[in-house]
Automatic annotation (TrEMBL):
Residues 1-30 form the signal peptide. Pfam families: CHB_HEX_C_1, Glyco_hydro_92, Glyco_hydro_92N. One of its GO terms (cellular component) is cytosol. Keywords: Calcium, Signal. GO terms for biological process: carbohydrate metabolic process; glycoprotein catabolic process. The lineage of its organism: Bacteria, Pseudomonadati, Bacteroidota, Bacteroidia, Marinilabiliales. Its cofactor is Ca(2+). InterPro entries: 6-hairpin_glycosidase_sf, GH-type_carb-bd, GH29D-like_dom, GH92_a_mannosidase_put, GH92_N, Glyco_hydro_92, PNGase. This is Alpha-1,2-mannosidase, putative. Residues 778-839 form the GH29D-like beta-sandwich domain. PROSITE patterns: PROKAR_LIPOPROTEIN. Residues 29-263 form the Glycosyl hydrolase family 92 N-terminal domain.
Length: 1009
């Protein structure tokens, strides 16, 4: 059966080649080098659509631009690894590196400065070639031509040295520094076979990748090494750093072919994958098959127009769109999710960057690759039903690294289920998405990440949590998706529940600025300076205030109403797209590609140019979409304005070129813009074809004059998914000036609105949390705290002993007087409403310096060149207490060094105790100090230690974020000078991804009594 399938592939490839003889095919226009330079983060190597193997050249990881393992600016290769992410903003993988060399065997990679010291090699782009499913390069240091191709689970290498003789092949499972290698092993099986594994911890979690390698020539010599030292006679070797070399003898013009099969399950799985996809096949046969597979995908849309450049950009975008998600199951159905070995009757996939791809890539699949859509949906849904881990936030090789926000997998699942794609069980999908939206259990990654408890209680994520606006708007949209599926399935009560939850963004609309701002649980707005980029960090993730204020795709009518109406929405959008005012500081690395304040470089605003259609001004959509395409997509290695994000940036371009875009996946419609090509034919899996034709040079004449659909006038600026799936022809008359009458009537504009069922409450009714208008947590002598609630007629109850208050606690009446450090907790109640969240703040009594000489005390940081700082100006003594948020502006960071602070009181004083706060958040490399000591002196020369504490934490403790404020008893010592030393943690431990580097130490207030 397998031989018959191979023969069929070869026949199909021949037919495709014949069809395009004398003219270029879609395959010929696709260029994997596009996006490998600049910020694109794509890789140029060999893979097949959605394959497990991405066999690509690897550079050293130097910085963020090397996330894919390769960057076009580089000129040195370490070898060829078998797993890579396409266009991601995170780095990792790079599993199982093979490298051919000649001459002396070298098991260390060497350095960039001196490549000849190791096995790496220089190369030139002039001797490099890439096409879908194929890559080749000449290694200049060895004069070896390397060619790569692949099946789904097997990478095929072909090494052709210029001279006959001995060829070495280095096998290195350890090379990627962004993967923390836990264990490796390599085994010699026979004179043509090797196998091994790499266990690591990185973006794919703690995982193991197994490989089986078959060589086309007998191995004449091999060696297994641990820590770069060969173990004589060893045929099996395990350890944290194992490598191997093999040697073969080649004649003149003879090539070595190496087939490397992967499995994330077992050695047996890797061998089975090889037997099914690699045994008996030559490099040429596999390359032909790979080309055929890519041609089948790229031919799903056939475009025609004058510009070769536009076709290259378009078909490369198609190519990038079909790389991910990636297969993770073996041919026997076994796969791994979160360390569990499972078995499935359907192919299982991972590398789900759904926060990016739900916006355009997944809707594209529902149109042109419904068979794969069903497989992707079933894979995701099985995380709930089979793996019992829930829907992932960002899943890499079966591990949810929770690197983004929201329960974003909801959108592609619901969109596909609503479109009735064959092979999808809508009820199974519904159970998975509903569970994701109700995840308030503390073991769930959604609990802390997305602020679910507050979101469900308040209807929005409050400003006390990071990225509050982003989380609110996205979760509102996901809830609307769930409501649509609940409605389809007849689950009326759930439909109402999630419809109500989808409107929380309305709480965050600030009528003074007409943007969405974050709001505290007290009802107070978080203050923001819109002229400083850093002030936007706590409210929005990757996108900005302009993108997320517009991200209500399910309720554009509601946003329009808040802004003032249809004309006002267009004016509001104009203000964003034409705002060129300067903003101080640096943007987030993902936010780039600006038109005014619209940043195309990251996904949250991708729908914004299309919102003009809702406002009745579609000619502006046509203008801005074309400007984005012209300015931010090029047919060069630096052709993407930012990360392709596993195909989302590419899918956006594809839709723009076709002339329609899914602003709100799940609403079954696409918003129309001007097509790029004179014709585009979409081949549908039901055997039908939907053709878009644009007359009168659409490249230059970008404005729609009129449209017909199947010969009839079409005046709407949107089209339904089902209309496209029925096939037909849409014809655009184009012109150089806007036709402001086309699609300008209300009935011709797209509608996106949420109506709340009669009698229901659009927003939860909860009492607002009490607050203290005085933000200072510190006081001297005594302090009177006055609490307030923005809920009229609310009663406040409080405690001072750290216990949780309720109606049995002391009732607040006009003020609370404190004389010592106290933990105040308060709660508010109002009739007919839920009780508020608990106000929780510690007020610190300390520092009575009013009798000191003017200007004292003075703090000096010894590692700041003896800089003298009055305490009111010192971030270590400014009466600001840090929170568990590392970016709250109240922490002082020390990078890989101790903090030594000397406090001069100007005279001898008596001190009772001292406290110093520190933060641990190892996810961002912030580690606690190893020790804190306090010393006293009267001459600022001879210090005597009077207090000391050492700190030791387990790995489990360090993997959690925590804040501590140890108190040091100073026993009423009388002294003029006090030295406080916080010793840095030391080298980051081996279990951490940044092992070997120095961490950060975050300290806040030195409090003295």
């Amino acid at each position: 059966m397998r031989l018959k399938n191979i023969a069929l592939f070869l026949i199909l490839a021949s037919l495709l080649s014949a069809c395009y003889s004398g003219s270029k095919s879609p395959y010929d226009y696709a260029d994997p080098m596009i996006g490998t330079d600049g910020l694109g983060h794509t890789f140029p190597g060999a893979t097949v659509p959605f394959g497990m193997v991405q066999l690509s050249p690897s550079n050293d990881f130097k910085a963020w631009n090397w996330c894919s393992g390769y960057h076009y600016s580089d000129s040195i290769l370490k070898g060829f690894a078998h797993t890579h992410l396409s266009g991601a903003g995170l780095a990792g993988l790079g599993d199982i590196l093979f490298m051919p060399t000649t001459g002396e065997v070298k098991l260390e990679a060497g350095t960039e400065e001196n490549p000849e010291m190791g096995y790496r090699s220089r190369f030139s782009h002039n001797q490099e070639e890439a096409s879908p499913g194929y890559y080749s390069v000449v290694l200049k240091d060895y004069d070896v031509n390397v060619e790569l191709t692949a099946t789904e689970r097997v990478g095929f290498h072909k090494y052709t040295p210029a001279q006959a003789g001995t060829l070495n092949v280095i096998i290195d499972p350890t090379h990627h520094i962004m993967e923390r290698v836990l264990d490796t092993g390599i085994e010699y099986i026979s004179d043509t076979e090797m196998r091994g594994y790499k266990k690591s911890d990185g973006e794919g979690g703690e995982r193991t990748v197994f490989f089986y390698a078959r060589f086309s020539k007998p191995i004449i010599k091999f060696g297994l090494a641990k820590d770069n030292t060969v173990s004589p006679g060893a045929e099996t070797l395990k350890g944290k750093n194992t490598k191997a070399f093999v040697q073969v003898q080649l004649k003149s013009n003879e090539a070595l072919q190496v087939q490397v099969a992967l499995s994330f399950v077992s050695h047996r799985g890797a061998k089975s994958n090889f037997d099914a996809e690699g045994a008996g096949l030559s490099f040429t046969e596999v390359h032909t098959m790979a080309r055929s597979k890519w041609s089948e995908k790229l031919n799903k849309i056939k475009v025609d127009g004058k510009s070769t450049s536009d076709k290259r950009i378009f078909y490369t975008a198609m190519y990038h769109s079909f790389i991910s998600p990636n297969l993770i199951s073996d041919v026997n159905g076994k796969y791994v999710v979160e360390g569990k070995v499972l078995t499935s009757e359907i192919p299982q996939y991972s590398n789900f960057s759904t926060w990016d791809t739900f916006r355009a890539l997944n809707p594209l699949f529902t149109m042109i690759d419904q068979e794969k859509t069903a497989e992707f949906v079933n894979s995701l849904a099985s995380r709930h039903s089979d793996a019992k881990v829930g829907l992932p936030v960002w899943e890499c090789l079966g591990h949810d690294n929770v690197c983004m926000i929201g329960y974003n997998a909801v959108s592609p699942l619901v969109d596909a289920a609503l479109k009735d794609i064959k092979g999808i069980d809508a009820n199974q999908v519904y159970e998975a998405v509903r569970a994701a939206a109700m995840s308030t259990e503390k073991h769930s990654p959604n609990y802390d990440k997305n602020g679910m408890e507050e979101y469900i209680q308040l209807g929005f994520v409050p400003a006390e949590l990071n990225c509050a606006v982003s989380k609110t708007t996205e979760q509102n949209y996901y809830d609307w998706c769930i409501a649509m599926l609940a409605k389809k399935l007849g689950r009326t009560a759930d439909a109402q529940l999630f419809i109500e939850r989808s409107l929380g963004y309305r709480n965050l609309f600030n009528p003074q600025t007409q943007f969405l701002h974050s709001k505290y649980t007290t009802g107070e707005w978080r203050e923001m300076d819109l002229t400083v980029w850093s002030d936007l960090i706590g409210n929005y993730v990757s996108g900005n205030i302009w993108a997320y204020s517009a991200f209500v795709p399910h309720d554009v009518e509601g946003l329009m109403s808040l802004i003032g109406g249809r004309e006002e929405l267009a004016t509001w959008l104009d203000g964003i797209f034409t705002d060129t005012s300067h903003i101080a500081g640096d943007t987030h690395v993902d936010i780039s590609g600006f038109i005014g304040k619209y940043g195309h470089g990251d996904e949250p605003g991708h729908h914004m140019p299309y919102l003009y259609n809702y406002a009745g001004q579609p000619w502006k959509t046509q203008s801005y979409v074309r400007k984005v395409m012209d300015d931010f997509y090029q047919d060069t290695p630096d052709g993407l304005v930012n990360n392709d994000d596993l195909g989302q940036m590419s899918a956006w371009y594809i839709f723009g070129a076709l002339g329609f875009y899914p602003v709100c996946p799940g609403d079954m419609q696409y918003i129309i813009t001007a097509p790029l090509f004179s014709s585009a034919a979409i081949q549908l899996e039901n055997g039908k074809q939907f053709t878009i034709r644009a007359k009168n040079n659409p490249k230059e004449n970008i404005y729609i004059q009129s449209v017909t659909l199947n010969g009839e006038p079409y005046t709407k600026s949107f089209i339904a998914h089902q209309q496209i799936m029925q096939g037909g022809e849409m014809v655009f008359e184009m012109g150089g000036e806007p036709n402001k009458k086309w699609a300008s009537e209300p009935e011709d504009m797209p509608v996106s609105s949420v109506s709340v069922p009669k009698g229901s409450s659009a927003l939860p009714q909860i009492t607002l949390k009490p607050f203290d208008k005085d933000n200072s947590e510190m006081f001297e002598g005594s302090r009177k705290v006055r609490l307030h609630s923005n809920t009229p007629d609310a009663d406040i109850y409080y405690t001072l002993d750290g216990s949780t208050p309720d109606k049995k606690s002391k009732k607040y009446k006009g003020g609370i007087t404190m004389h010592k450090t106290s933990n105040l907790k308060a709660i508010a109640y109002a009739d007919g409403m839920k009780p508020s969240f608990v106000y929780d703040r510690t007020y610190y009594a300390g520092r009575r310096f009013e009798e000191l000489a003017q200007g004292y005390p003075i703090l000096t940081l010894e590692n700041k060149a003896g800089q003298h700082i009055p305490t009111k100006d010192s971030p270590l003594m400014n009466q600001k207490i840090g929170s568990e948020k590392f970016n709250d502006g109240r922490w002082v960071g020390f990078n890989g060094r101790d903090m030594v602070a000397v406090i001069d009181f100007g005279q001898e004083i008596r001190l009772k105790n001292l406290s110093l706060g520190f933060l641990s958040n190892t996810g961002v490399w912030i580690f606690p100090p190893s020790a804190i000591s306090v010393s006293a002196s009267n001459d600022n020369k001879n210090f005597k230690e009077i207090a000391h504490k050492s700190f030791s934490y387990s790995q489990a403790e360090l993997e959690e974020t925590f804040l501590e404020r140890p108190i040091f008893n100073l026993n009423h010592i009388k002294t003029r000078y006090l030295k406080v030393t916080a010793s840095e943690f030391g080298p980051i431990p081996s279990w951490h991804a940044a092992t070997g580097h120095k961490g950060l130490m975050y300290l806040d207030e030195i409090i003295l009594n």
